[in-house]
Amino acid sequence: MDKLPEVTWSLMHPTPLNVDYMKRVITEAANYKVDSFEICAACHTLLGGLDGLVLYEDYPAVAASLDREGIIANRRRLNEILELAHASGRPVYYWHREVTVWPEFLKAVPELRDANGEFDLLGDAFETLLRYKLAKAFDAVPALDGIVLTLTEADFSAIHNSTPGIYPPEQVVAKIVRIFAGEHAARGKRFILRSFGSIAKDYEDILAGAALAAKEFSFEVETKITPYDFDPFLPDNPFMKRIPNLTLGAECDSLGEFLGAGYLPAENVENIVRYVRWGQKCGVDRFTIRLDRIGNNIFDSYPVNLFAYEQAILNPGISAQEIRRRYAETHYPVSCRKELEELGAAGYEVVTKLHYIDHHLIFHQFPLQADLKWIKAGGIFGVFKDHRKLNLLNGIWSILSERTTPGRERILREKEEALVLAEKNLARVEKLRPELSEAESLRLKRLWSNAVTAGKAIGSFVRVVCAYFDDMEAGREEAPGMEAAIASMKETLLPLMTHPGEFEVASAEFVNGMDHHVFTVAGNDLDQVYLKPLLGIVPLLRAEYRAEFEARKKAGALPGVVDFIIPGGITDECRCGRFMHASHALLKDGRPGRLIGNQVFPNGYLECFLKGDASAPQFLLLEGTGDCRISVNGRESECRLDDAPRIDLAPCGEVHIVLRKLGNRYPLIRSIAVCRKP
User: What is the CATH number of domain 6-329?
Assistant: First the structure.
C-alpha cells in the first residue's frame, strides 16, 4: 500500500480559543488516525490570527488602541493548547488572514496606503509589518508549529485591486508567500498556504503566485475539496493541483458548514466518499477535516461523517454503503439498524431542501442574523423570479448560474416537502426510542426536532419572500400578500420560541466589506439560530418593499422609458451581474442602491442588460452618487453619477452596461434606465 496521507483535524471554526474543548478533541483523537491539528479560532476578528497574539509595542499608537488583555489571554490559551497537543504527539498549525490590520495602523503608518488610497501591497511598510508580526507571534508562542495563511476574507485583499497593473495579483501573492515561507524556514516551522477564494480567478492568482514562490521555498498549498466553499452541489475542485516542489493538502468539512452546522441531521457519507476519492485522485499529501462550527462539534452531532472520512482514507475501494453498514454494526442495536441507516440517509435530503432552494444556497452566514446584507450578497433573491435565466450571477459560487429559476410555486413546494419529511422522521425517532440508548435517543431527537423547527421557520421566511415578489410584480403598494404571509409567520413561529421577548431585532450597522465579528455560539437555543433572526428580518423586508416600490414607480414614470433596473432592489437581483461580496446592495437614506466595490473587492463591478428600442434614438439615464467608469455596448467612458448623466445611444434592441469605480470612492448606483429621446 502507498504511504497514507497525513490526517489533520481542524477545529474551533470560528470561535475563541478553548482549552477544555482541546482536551475533548485529544481524547476523541485516540479513536482515530489523527496526525496533526489546525486551529482556526476567532479568525474573523482582530483577536484571531497573528494580530491576536502581537502587542505591537514598537507601534505605540497601535498598542494603545488594541485589546491588550484579550491578546495576553490568547497567548496563554494557545500555549496551553500547544502543550496539550504536543503531549499527544501532534503538531499544531494556527490560522491567519492577510491583509489584516488594526485600524490605528492606517493612521500610524500612512505608508501602508498608496497615492490612490488603496493598500500598498508591494511596499516596504507592508513587508516590514509582516515580518514584525511573524517574529513577535513566534516569540509569544514559540512552540507553535506553523501558520496556515489565507489571502482572502480579510480587511484588504491581496489579490483584488482596481490597479492590477501596479499590483499584479500573482506577484503580490508571491511576495507575501516568500516572506511567510522564509520566516518559517528560518525557524524550522511549517508553512501552509490556503488557496481559498470566492471566484475562479482567485484560485488562478493564488496558485500562480505560489508557483513563483515555490522556486525558492518548499511549503504546502491547502485547497478546499470543492471550489469556493463546502457546498455539496459544487463539483470536485478543478484547482486541486500539485505544484512542483510543494505538497498538496485537501481541506474538507465533516460537520456541514452549509448543512445546518450541527443543528440538523446532516449525515453526508456519500459526498464524503466522493470528496476523499477526488483528493486521492489528485494525489494529496494531507487531508484536513473540519470538526466543528460555531461551537457545535461532529462528536455530538453525527459522528458517522468523521468515521466515513477515516474509512474512505484508509480503504480506497470502500463504498458509502459499506461505510454505513460498518458504522451501524458497531453503533446501532441489531433490532433497528436498517431503520437508523435509512434515517441517516434521509437527513441529507431534508437538510438540503431546507437550507437550499433548488440547490442554490440561501444563507451564507449561520447562525442567522437579522440582517439582509449577506443574504443579498449571496444572490438568493435572484432565484425568486419565475423562470428566469441565472447566467448573470455566474460570479456568485452558491448560485448554479447555468440553471433557470424554478418558479415560486416549486420553491414553496420544496419547503413544504422538507417539513413533511422532517415531521415524519421525527415520529420515527420517537417510535424507536425504547430500542436506543438514552444518549442516542436524545441526539436523534435533538437533530430531528431542530429540523422540524427549521422547516417551519425557513418555510415561513420563504413564503414571505415569495409574497414580496408577487405583490411587487402585481404593483400592490400596500403589499397585502406579504403582510398576510408575515402574519402567518408570526402565528407559526412565536409559539415555538422558548424566550419570545423582542424579536424585531435591529440590523447591524452596514459595513461595505468584511465585518469583524465573533460568530455566535448559541448552543441548542433555536430562538437565536432560526426564530429571532428570521422574525427580525421581517421589518427589514417591509422597509425594502416600500423603498423598492417607490423607486420602481419613479423609474417607470420617466418620459419615454423603455426599460429600467433598480440595482439595489430585491426583485432585480437576478439582473445584477457581480462578484460574490463585491457589490453590496443596501438601503441608504430610505432608498435602494448598490455599491460598486469595497476595500476587499476594489475591482468589483456591476453588469446588466436593458432592453432598448431598435427603431428610435435613445439615451441611458443613470442615478446615483460617486464617479465611475462605464462601458456601454463596449464603449468606455467616465461619468459622475451625482450629475444624473445621460449617455446617448444609437437605436439598438439591447444595451449592455458594466460599471466600475473611478478614484478612491465606491460609487452607489440607484437606477439605470433606457429612454427614447423626445
Answer: 3.20.20.80
How many residues can be counted in the chain?
Answer: 678
**CB count in 10 Å sphere of residue 534:** 23
d(CA 413, CA 411): 5
H helix runs in 524-566, sequence order: 526, 532-556
Which own/partner contact pairs does 321-327 have at CB distance under 8 Å and 24+ positions apart?
A: 323/269, 323/273, 324/269
Read off φ and ψ for residue 610, nearest 5 degrees: -120, 150
Cross-strand partners of 193: 149, 221
Do domains 6-329 and 561-676 share one topology? The answer is no
Do 606 and 596 touch, CB atoms closer than 8 A?
yes
- 163 pLDDT band (50/70/90 cuts)? confident
Sign of CA dihedral 109, 114, 117, 118: negative
Distance (Å, whole) CA 641 – CA 663: 13
CATH tag for 561-676 (out of 2.60.120.260, 1.10.3210.10, 3.40.50.300, 2.20.25.110): 2.60.120.260
- pLDDT tens string 266-308: 999 999 999 999 999 999 999 999 999 999 999 999 999 999 9
Q: Which helix (H) or strand (E) covers residue 235, if one does?
A: none
Query: Helix, strand, or coil here: 357?
Result: strand
Mean pLDDT of the 335-358 span: 96
DSSP track, 272-292? HHHHHHHHHHTT-SEEEEE-E
Q: pLDDT band at residue 1, thresholds of 50, 70 and 90?
A: very low
Q: Could you identify the residue written with the cell 439598438?
A: 652
CA-nearest of 224, 273, 280, 223 to 246 is 223
Q: List pLDDT tens digits, range 205-219.
A: 999 999 999 999 999
Q: Please indicate, yes or no, whether the overall pTM of this predicted structure exceeds 0.90.
A: yes
Q: What are phi and psi for residue 284, nearest 5 degrees?
A: -70, 150
If you ran DSSP here, which 8-state letter would residue 626 be given?
S
Pairing of strands 646-649, 92-97: unpaired
Q: Do residues 83 and 139 make contact, with C-beta atoms less than 8 angstroms apart?
A: no
Based on C-alpha coordinates, what's the Rg of the chain? 26
Dig out the grid coordinates for 612 from the structure: 432598448
57 contacts 133 by C-beta, under 8 angstroms: no
Predicted pLDDT at 367: 85
Residue 415 grid cell:
419547503
Collapsing DSSP states into helix, strand and coil, what is residue 549?
A: helix
Q: Where are the domains of the chain?
A: 6-329, 348-545, 561-676
Cβ density class 415-433: b for 16+ within 10 Å, e for less: beebbebbeebbebbeebe
Sorted by sequence, the CB contacts under 8 Å of residue 300 that are 6+ apart come out as: 262, 443
C-alpha cell at 58: 514598537
Asked whether residue 630 carries a pLDDT value surpassing 50, the answer given is yes
Report whether 23 contacts 84 (CB < 8 A): yes
Name the nearest CA neighbour of 29 among 415, 366, 297.
297
- DSSP alpha helices (H): ranges in 356-437? 373-377, 408-432
